[in-house]
């Protein structure tokens, strides 16, 4: 009996539990003040500042990526339900403005302080990508369609993604979609031909919302409903490899904890994450010797 109880103690120990699956791929580094309103996706701009879709404040919040201090708010009150921001090849900007069921398009960053000219209509828009080709891809979540626009005119589309969120560009120009309701991440060619599906069966995805691609082609996925961030190699064997996880699957605040994280952005060895229900941005980093 004593031997049996000792075995149970070993099996229940945290050290043993942590031996299963990949561990954290970065360490908690810094957090902003909780001054945002359900922040969604975010990105580093061409001026090396951090731009955040501050949904409930209907603005783009701009942070210093080194200190995570708020620099300014842009378009305040003009962007109802803004959820995504993407920069084009020449500094153009595309915003997924869900409250207007549209993607707002601007010529440059400075124009964000002016009332937006609506670029393209897309029902309940959750995601927007200003592609390196100059095309705009929008996720019209209300009708489940990924739509390609050329010169602000729709030229192609694919259905089957009701409620999906992010649209992100891979290194080869292909397109990743965070398809949260179907618990998967899907890859399309620029011509919207299906290339790959990364689904819940292998990665136990619960609700992937927004994602980013590292400089080596890895995926960083905010699995919101699981309160965690995944690092995935899409070129790994048998449909991809899970390389690391941030978060323990339970909502919270503090190092290694998130509450409904929505957005991610990668810059060098830094990972910026919208810790959405904690109304803040956090930074995780890989510390190099």
Keywords:
24 strands, 289 residues, 3 helices, 44% strand, mainly beta
Residues in helices, as a percent range: under 10%
Q: Largest beta sheet, briefly?
A: 4 strands, antiparallel
Unreliable spans: 1-20
What is the average of the pLDDT values? Answer: 91
Q: What's the structural blueprint in terms of helices and strands?
A:
Elements (H helix, E strand, L loop, with lengths): L1 H11 L1 H4 L9 E5 L7 E6 L5 E5 L4 E5 L6 E5 L7 E6 L5 E5 L4 E5 L11 E4 L3 E6 L5 E5 L4 E6 L2 E6 L8 E3 L5 E5 L4 E5 L5 E6 H4 L4 E6 L5 E5 L4 E6 L7 E6 L17 E4 L2 E6 L4 E6 L4
Antiparallel strand pairs: 1-24, 2-3, 3-4, 4-5, 6-7, 7-8, 8-9, 10-11, 11-12, 12-13, 14-15, 15-16, 16-17, 18-19, 19-20, 20-21, 22-23, 23-24
Briefly say what this structure is.
This protein has about 290 residues and is mainly β. It is about 5% helix and about 45% strand.
Describe this structure in words.
The protein is globular, with a radius of gyration of 19 Å. The chain is built from three helices and 24 strands. It has a four-stranded antiparallel beta sheet with strand order 1-24-23-22, with no helix packed on it. Strands 2-3-4-5 form a four-stranded antiparallel beta sheet, with no helix packed on it. It has a four-stranded antiparallel beta sheet with strand order 6-7-8-9, with no helix packed on it. Mean pLDDT is 91; it is low at 1-20. Strand 16 and strand 17 form a beta hairpin. Helix content is 7%, strand content 44%. The chain has 289 residues and is mainly β.
């Amino acid at each position: 009996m004593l031997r049996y109880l000792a075995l149970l103690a070993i099996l229940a120990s945290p050290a043993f539990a942590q031996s299963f699956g990949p561990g954290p791929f970065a360490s908690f580094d810094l957090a902003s003040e909780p001054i945002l309103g359900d922040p969604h996706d975010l990105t580093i701009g061409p001026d090396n500042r951090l731009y955040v879709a501050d949904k409930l404040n209907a603005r783009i919040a701009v942070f210093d990526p080194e200190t995570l201090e708020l620099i300014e708010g842009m378009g305040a009150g003009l962007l109802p339900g803004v959820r995504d921001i993407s920069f084009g090849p020449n500094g153009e900007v595309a915003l997924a403005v869900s409250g207007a069921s549209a993607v707002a398009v601007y010529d440059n960053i400075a124009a964000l302080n002016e009332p937006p000219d609506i670029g393209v209509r897309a029902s309940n828009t959750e995601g927007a990508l200003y592609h390196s080709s100059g095309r705009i891809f929008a996720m019209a979540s209300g009708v489940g369609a990924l739509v390609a626009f050329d010169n602000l005119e729709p030229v192609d589309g694919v259905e089957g993604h009701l409620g999906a969120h992010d649209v992100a560009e891979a290194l080869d120009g292909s397109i990743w979609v965070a398809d949260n309701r179907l618990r998967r991440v899907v890859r399309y060619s620029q011509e919207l031909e299906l290339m790959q599906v990364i689904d819940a069966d292998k990665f136990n995805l619960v609700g992937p919302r927004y994602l980013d691609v590292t400089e080596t082609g890895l995926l960083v996925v905010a699995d919101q409903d699981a309160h965690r961030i995944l690092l995935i190699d899409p070129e790994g064997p048998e449909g991809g490899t899970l390389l690391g996880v941030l978060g323990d699957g339970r909502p919270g605040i503090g190092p290694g904890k998130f509450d409904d994280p929505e957005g991610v952005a990668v810059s060098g060895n830094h990972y910026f994450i919208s810790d959405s229900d904690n109304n803040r941005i956090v930074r995780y980093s890989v510390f190099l010797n």
